[in-house]
UniProtKB/TrEMBL annotation:
Organism encoding this protein: Parerythrobacter jejuensis
Keywords tagged on the record: Cell membrane, Decarboxylase, Lipid biosynthesis, Lipid metabolism, Lyase, Membrane, Phospholipid biosynthesis, Phospholipid metabolism, Pyruvate, Transmembrane, Transmembrane helix, Zymogen
Membrane-crossing segments per the record: 28-61
Modification after translation (UniProt): Is synthesized initially as an inactive proenzyme. Formation of the active enzyme involves a self-maturation process in which the active site pyruvoyl group is generated from an internal serine residue via an autocatalytic post-translational modification. Two non-identical subunits are generated from the proenzyme in this reaction, and the pyruvate is formed at the N-terminus of the alpha chain, which is derived from the carboxyl end of the proenzyme.
Origin superkingdom: Bacteria
Family to which this protein belongs: Belongs to the phosphatidylserine decarboxylase family. PSD-A subfamily.
Entry EC no(s): 4.1.1.65
Protein's UniProt name: Phosphatidylserine decarboxylase proenzyme
Site, Cleavage (non-hydrolytic): residue positions: 207-208
InterPro entries in the cross-refs: PS_Dcarbxylase (IPR003817), PSD-A (IPR033175)
Gene that specifies this protein: psd
Catalytic activity: a 1,2-diacyl-sn-glycero-3-phospho-L-serine + H(+) = a 1,2-diacyl-sn-glycero-3-phosphoethanolamine + CO2
Function statement: Catalyzes the formation of phosphatidylethanolamine (PtdEtn) from phosphatidylserine (PtdSer).
Annotated pathway: Phospholipid metabolism; phosphatidylethanolamine biosynthesis; phosphatidylethanolamine from CDP-diacylglycerol: step 2/2
Essential cofactor(s): pyruvate
C-alpha cells in the first residue's frame, strides 16, 4: 500500500498488513532472540520463555506501520502516536524562536500554542513531520531523563528541536523529548533536507514525548487526553481555531 493514493470516493486499494519492523529495532530483536535460543538449548526454560516474550515486545516497539497522510495544505498532522497530555500557551524554546547564524528567522518570541503528545512504551515511536518543507533547523540538546509527562521536561530533558519551513513562509517547530525510560533520540533527517508532510523524521527509544508549536493564529483541533495517530490525525488547520469540547467516557 505504500505510495498508493486513496480518497474518500473509494479510490485505491487498501488492506490490512503486518507492520514492518524498523531496521533500528531488528538488531535489538535479534540479540534478545539469540539469548532466548541459547537459554532454550540449555533447557533454562525459566529464562528462555521471558526472553522469548521480550523479543516480541522489542519487535512490537519498533513496528513501523504505513499511515494514510492527509494531502491538505492547511493541515498540520500529528508527529507522534500517543495521547495529548498538555495544551498550553508558551514562548517557543530559544533554539526554535531565535534567528540562526545565517539570519534565517525562527518562530519568534511571542507565545504560541504548544501541544504535547506523550508516547507510552505501547505506542509506535516513529516520528513524522507535521508539514512538508525544508528542515531549516535540527538542534540536539543533552539533558536529564525526567518523567516526560512533566511540564518541565520540555526544558530539562534530553531533546531534539526540528523546524520545518514551507516555501510560503509557514513554519512549524516540534521537539522530540527523551523520557524517564527513553535514552536515545535517533534522527532520520538532517538540516537542509526536503521532507513531505507525514514523512518519517526520527524515533525516540522506549517511551517519550513530542511537543508541537503551532503557528500564531492557529488553534488546536484536538482535545486534552485525546488519542492521536502520527501522520494521520490533524492537530490543527492553519489560521483556524474554535472551542472543541469532549467527554471522557
Amino acid at each position: 500500500m505504500s505510495g498508493d493514493i486513496l480518497d474518500n470516493k473509494g479510490s485505491g486499494d487498501a488492506g490490512w498488513q503486518w507492520p514492518a519492523i524498523h531496521p533500528e529495532g531488528r538488531k535489538y530483536g535479534l540479540v534478545v532472540a539469540a539469548f532466548s535460543l541459547v537459554a532454550a538449548l540449555l533447557a533454562w526454560e525459566t529464562i528462555a520463555w521471558p526472553l522469548g516474550f521480550l523479543t516480541l515486545g522489542v519487535l512490537a516497539f519498533f513496528r513501523d506501520p504505513e499511515r494514510i497522510v492527509p494531502q491538505d495544505e492547511n493541515a498540520i498532522v500529528s508527529p507522534a502516536d500517543g495521547h495529548v497530555s498538555l495544551i498550553s500557551q508558551v514562548a517557543p524554546p530559544l533554539e526554535l524562536s531565535m534567528s540562526d547564524a545565517a539570519g534565517n528567522p525562527g518562530l519568534g518570541e511571542g507565545p504560541v500554542t504548544r501541544i504535547s503528545i506523550f508516547m507510552s512504551v505501547f505506542d509506535v515511536h516513529i516520528n513524522r513531520t507535521p508539514i512538508g518543507g525544508i528542515v531549516t533547523r535540527l538542534i540536539y540538546v543533552p539533558g536529564k531523563f525526567l518523567n516526560a509527562d512533566l511540564d518541565k521536561a520540555s526544558e530539562e530533558n534530553e531533546r531534539q528541536h526540528i523546524l520545518v519551513s514551507r516555501p510560503d513562509g509557514l513554519q512549524v517547530g516540534f521537539t522530540q523529548i527523551a523520557g524517564l525510560v527513553a535514552r536515545r533520540i535517533v534522527p532520520f533527517v538532517k538540516q537542509g533536507d526536503l521532507v513531505a508532510v507525514g514523512q518519517r523524521v526520527g524515533l525516540i527509544r522506549f517511551g517519550s514525548r513530542v511537543d508541537v508549536y503551532l503557528p500564531a493564529g492557529t488553534e488546536p483541533g484536538v482535545i486534552l487526553g485525546q488519542k492521536i495517530v502520527a501522520g494521520e490525525t490533524v492537530l490543527a488547520r492553519v489560521g483556524e481555531g474554535k472551542l472543541i469540547e469532549g467527554f471522557a467516557q
